[in-house]
Design a protein that fits this description.
The chain is mainly alpha-helical. The chain is built from three helices and two strands. Strand 1 and strand 2 form a beta hairpin. It is elongated. Bound molecules: zinc ion (ZN) (2 copies).
Length: 95
């Protein structure tokens, strides 16, 4: 299987259930890292998910906008600058 497909598989497993999926996702990523030590994206992904994320309480959602991607300030809705409007935690949510 192509390494990108394996990365996606790891992401899927991790997103479905962080607690249960983390060891499986990490196992996939570590295999990929061993198979191709020159691929920098794999260790980057491992660092993102290898332990519960303190920034979002390991929910995967942006804690500033509570995952909505927008924030309300003085009655105006603005794109959340912490997550660039995506609603996902910038530290761990973009595997
Ligand atoms: Zn996070
Ligand atoms: Zn946000």
């Amino acid at each position: 299987m192509h390494w990108k497909a394996r990365m996606l598989k790891a992401a899927l497993v991790f997103r479905r259930d962080r607690d249960a999926g983390r060891p499986e996702a990490l196992a996939i990523l570590r295999e990929l890292a061993a198979a191709d030590p020159t691929n920098k994206q794999v260790p980057f992904a491992i660092r993102k998910i290898e332990r519960p994320c303190p920034r979002c309480g390991d929910t995967g959602f942006c804690s500033r906008c509570l995952g909505r991607g927008i924030r309300r300030t003085l009655g105006l809705e603005r794109k959340c600058e912490a997550c660039y409007g995506r609603g996902i935690c910038p530290a761990c949510g973009v595997l």
